[in-house]
Amino acid sequence: MPLHDVGYRAWQGRRTGWWAPAAAIATTGIRLAWTSRWLRRAVFFAWSPALVFAASFFAFEQAVDEGRITSMVERAANGRNVDGIGLLGTVLANTLGTPSSLDPAASREEENAHTRRLVWSRLLLAFMRAPQAVLLTVVVGLVAPTLISRDLRARAWLVYFTRPVSRWEYIVGKILVLTTVVAAVTVLPALALWLAGVLVSPSVWVIVETWDLPLRIIGASVVLAIPTVLLALAFSSLTAESRIATFAWFATWAACWIAHSSLTTADLVATPTEATVMGESMTDALDADWRPPQRFHWLARAAGLDTAIDRWSWLSPYHAIGILQAWTFGVEERPKAIAPPAVSMVVVSLLATAVLAWRVTAPMRA
Amino acid sequence: MTTGFDLPVRLDGVVKRYGGRTVLDRVTCEIQPGITGLVGPNGAGKSTLVRAMLGLVRLAAGHVEVFGRDPAQEPREVRQLIGVVPEDECAVPGLAAVEMVRYAARLSGLPSIEALRRAHEVLDWCDAGQERYRPVETLSVGMRQKVSFAAAIVHDPRLVILDEPTNGLDPLERRAMLDRLTTLAREHGKTVLVSTHVLPDVQAICDRVIVLAAGRVRLQGSIDELTRPAIPRLRLEATGPIDRLVAQLAGRGIDATRHGDTTLLLPLQDATGRERIWDAARESGAVIRALHPTHERLEDVFLRAIAPRDEVMHAAS
Fold it and tell me: Is B125 in contact with A7 (Cβ distance < 8 A)?
């Protein structure tokens, strides 16, 4: 028995705005998702690569501070590990191995600023592509499948649609849940990495030189989030069994990856010396003076250092999103490379949105 | 007469089809302030009717108005005026009962802190006790029903729609639930629509009833009107020498029919006639326990209403 039972009372307060239902769905969804011990572990683990990449930033800024960039580049060109993880050497060898776009008469400070922009962009791109995109797949796979399928199973759609909640507000609320997860796994660690770079840099002007990188990080995360979030929610909306949605999510990524790898390998085997891809010779496209050290080739690719156009990228979400992220960081600018994955991801996003819009109100039509 | 924005619900020639099946067939009815019972056999179209009021289904024809608003045009505004207790369990797994009610309040547009305060208030009114802190999926059927009810009224709707509200409740809880509905309607001016199969519940609390069968409104009106027999009679319950009472009544020109050991059915009387009944009782030594106009049982009215039309015609002839 309550101490002050006031009985039933009318309520005449002021109602919140149009954004309130989506915000309520998002905050409640995040809170429920966060109760999963596995999600907490995964998000915690997702920050650990940032510590490793911070070492590259530190090594680079130390070299800049001590004026030994040239010697570091030489060591990197000889395949030496300059930061303990091999990534910085890979990036430096390629970045400073290409002809500089700077005026030959540029001062040392200007050259350092130009080098820093290139190196930081590639380090951040590698960070977002290699560890974070893979971890994101796992984290979204933990959260997304239950988001809508659980509502279908528990008939919770009645909770929403008998109230002033439209299906688009419901969908936006669920998207916000996953977007928060994406932010926790990609945006925030990448921004923290940029901030770490600023802190270990000897010059405060580094903020001015790299001011656009936080925006590019957010842009790259949006490119990553839109198709993945919509696809994951579409799977979740197709079944009341979250296990099936989980399986569909991981199976899609794995199958697309395998298909991409198989077709790319088949291309290389068919024309090992002259892999002509979309009218451009792969060997010609590569820098004649430089090849990334084989043991760090995957990092070179992640950092956008592989200049060959991947003609099967549109087939695999991981590879398609990677190219679009490279475009966001200004690393990839060739329309032939960007257009197929862009079209592919737009189509995937539109299809997923259509499925979502159709499925979330399906129980009401039954 | 209630009109325009005061009339809670008005349906005019509503037709809804799912594929080739007509679920609502030219339904025309009004839901007046007070408590209305919506009764009908399974598959009669009750749930679809409720969905039409919420603007959740697209109608093939007809028009719905809820407090003067069209749910198809203004679904958000209409749903803010309505609270729904669905028959089936529906909850967000993982939330405690109080969180569930608070969530419902936030979805209905209450600010976060106010939603929590209001959730506790309505759960107090529903006697939810400390059970409110348990996850909804672990609650008993009766407690879940309370949570659903609290979630439906937490935003103070003008119209409360309940689908089988006493399902799974023990007799005490059932009585308490019916009392709460009566309080909402009588003391707080809410319009309550109860969709149920439990006709005694309808007869106990409802002012009006709508009988729906095969997608059509078969009967609607106040309970008093619908249960009034074709030939009005008085029902007299007495103890003592019933046979002598019958004889005394006959001597006063009142033809009484025995209906059980202690009950008589009499023709409806005016004030003078009722005076003669008391005189007869005094003379015979019988004690009158009750004297009131007869009513048909709602169940009989319902069964007659949902019978196929040709059967009804046959019975009438």
Answer: yes
Pairing of strands B257-258, B263-267: antiparallel
Q: Which domain holds residue B246?
A: 233-293
Q: Do A35 and B94 touch (CB under 8 A)?
A: yes
Chain A CB contacts of B93 under 8 Å are: 150, 154, 156
**Residue at B257 is within a domain:** yes
* C-alpha dist (Å) from residue A39 to A47, A189, B163: 13, 16, 38
Q: A230 vs chain B: nearest CA distance in angstroms?
A: 22
Q: Could you tell me the CATH number of the domain that includes residue B237?
A: 3.30.70
Inside any domain, residue B269: yes
Dihedral (Cα; B134, B138, B144, B147), 10-degree rounding: 20
Q: Considering only CB atoms, which chain B residues are within 8 Å of A13?
A: 110-111, 114
Domain membership of residue B169 (yes or no) is no
Residue B39 has pLDDT above 80, yes or no: yes
Identify the band that residue B110 occupies on the pLDDT scale cut at 50, 70 and 90: very high
Tally of domains within chain B: 1
pLDDT of B317 higher than 50? no
Tell me if B75 and A156 make a contact (CB, 8 A cut-off). no
Does B270 reside within a domain? yes
Put simply, the chain B residues between 180 and 199 with a CB less than 8 A from any chain A CB are: 180, 183-184, 187-188
What ipTM does this complex have? 0.80
SS3 B61: strand
pTM: 0.81
Torsion from C-alpha of A191, A193, A194, A195, nearest 10 degrees: 90
Cα(first)–Cα(last) distance of chain B, in Å? 35
